[in-house]
Each structure stands twice: as structure tokens, then as C-alpha cells.
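Thread: D-malate complex, take 2
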Amino acid sequence: MYNVNCLNNISSKGTDLFSDAYKIDATFEEADAVLVRSAKMHDMDLPASLLAIARAGAGVNNIPLDKCAEHGIVVFNTPGANANAVKEHVIASMLLAARDEIGGVEWVKENKDDADIAKTAEKAKKAFAGTEISGKKLGVIGLGAIGQLVANAAIALGMEVYGYDPYLSVNAAWNLSSKVKHIVNVEDIYKECNYITVHVPALDSTKGMINKAAFDMMQEGTVIINCARDILVDEKAIVDAIASGKVKKYVSDFPNTASVNMDGAIVFPHLGASTEEAEENCAVMAVQELRDYIENGNICHSVNYPACDMGVCATAGRVAICHKNVPAVISKITSVMGDAGINIEEMSNKSKNDYAYSLLDISRAASDAVVEKLSAIDGVIKVRVVK
Ligand code: MLT
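Output below.
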């Protein structure tokens, strides 16, 4: 029996996919696997039993990735599973920034007792008029699953789209409309675009990337949309940029003490991925990733360990080894197997930054003694008998 703990509400469309071999109401302290959405895990003590964490969503800034890797805990996310929801939210954000639809709706509410409202509205409406997004320039910074959908949708809405992503994957490039202008220098987005939307992960290297220098390059009246993470935008600098007129509107999905007090900001309570469909898609993907890892040792969409897929084990045994990405670990693993008279039928070794993962299909199941010897190898973090 595998113990699964859900740190947040996870759609039953996903949890229903666990077989009878899983107990899905286990405590965190006894968990083999954890499902999480936004719960902050940085200060939590990770139980020794924990094999994997699946984040039902894209952002993983609530999870201590390095600490998990150090303990041989594989962290997964669900890239693309909520991308359509976020894309629709970004498009809505642009439309709300282009016209004062929110102000207009407020006006109607405030004047609901006016018996002559139909007539008064015709006079009042000019205060809420705006512009169209068709024909305007949109800069998309980050062309992952969400950015590419936003770029393509904006093209379909008649916008001129500039796309910037120094790490563009081949898949993303295939999916991107050929009408998206490939921008090599992000400064060209700052200088040229009327709307700028950011879709990059929150990392030390991206923190505050939309800063004073970026605002200084922008045209008067630029709209900034941030449905990624609040720390990407320097919120002191954007207050000045709004005051100076460089930025007309800041549409943020992240309420905090700075954004909620900003004139010229439209702030949502992190609604981007909050659709039934997205929550279901994320839960399904997260559970599939966990099951494939626990039952087969395969890793798909991990953010701290490399991808590794050997399908379903067809030999007598399979061993999964999380280890440091350092020389000579593989040769020591194969020596332990050889010394035990175990033949390695198939093997995959993959690395990602400081960490590596080896999956071995072997001629007989690894005994406790073999596991002990493998675990003692310098650089080995966790050894697991999958079969
Ligand atoms: C994500 O990171 O997937 C989105 O921000 C939505 C969420 O946090 O659930």
C-alpha cells in the first residue's frame, strides 16, 4: 500500500485514478507521495518515507526543490495542464485594460436606483470608452505552454505579436504561429509593444526582471500583464511608471500589499488557472506522473530530476537510484550488481544539473544486501526496489 497525502484540495478526477494500492487520505508524516497546489512547503519537515511530490499546476516556488533533490524526492509539475485557462485569463486581462469595462459595470451598480438609467447611461458611457486590442502590439516574454497559447490567440485576435524566449523548445517552436515575430533581444519588446505579458518561472534570475530600466524603454501607456508570479515585476518601479504615464494599467493576478494599493492596477485573486477544466487536467496529470514514478520508476515532467522512461519492467527486477551527478557512480553501481551475480538487462542513466537518476532492469530482484551496498556508494542518495 502506498500512502498519498493531499496538502490542498485536488480534483477527484485525478485522485480517482489511484488504484486500490493507494491510501489517499494518509497524513503528511507517513506519505510516500504528496499532491500539492499552493501550500507552502519550504518550512515543512520532509518525512523519510517521501518518494515524490506532484504539484498540480506549473509554478513550483512553494516547494523546496533543492532540499527535495538532496533527499531523493522527485518533484513533478503539470506543464500545460492549466495553460488554456491562463491563456483565456490573459486575453480577458488585455480586454479589461483596453476598455474600462470594470468601471462601467460599477457605474451601473451605483446607479441601479435611477429610474432613468437607460438614458443616463448613454451620457455616462463615454467615461468608460477605450481602445481595441486588434492592431496593437503584444510582447510575450516566455513562450512555454502558456506563452505560446497566448501568442497564437492574440494573433487570431488581430494583434501583432512579438515573442521572446531564449530557451524556446523545439515543441514550442512547432506550435507557435509563424506570424509571431521572433525577438532575440527582450529590449525590443519593451521599446515596441503596447501590451506586455510575462510567462516565465519565478527564479532568482527572473526576480524583478520588469524593472525601472525596462519601464524607461517603454512607450507611454503600455499595459503590463502578470499572470506568472508577482516577484517578476519590480513593484516599486511600476508605481513610478504608472505615475509617469509610461504604464497605463498593471494587470496582476497576485494581490499583495503593494499591488492592491496601486492606482492603475487591476488585481485578481490568482484566478488564472481557476477553472474546473484546469483543476481537473492538473490533477489527472499529477496523479499519472506519481503512479508512473511509484509503480515503474519512470520520471516525466520533474523539475528537480531528469526525465527517464523505461516503460513497464519486463525483467525479474527493477531498481531506481537517485544520485549526485558526479563521476564513477555508474561504474560502482554496475560493480555491485556484477559482484552479486546480477545481470543488468537494460539501463538508463540521465542527469539534470547536480542530480542524476539511474534505472536498471536486472535478471533478479535486488536483495536487501544489494540495496545496502548500492546505498553506500558515494554520491548515491536513494535506492528503491521498484520490482
Ligand atoms: C500555476 O502555477 O500553475 C498557476 O499559477 C496556478 C496555480 O498556482 O495553481
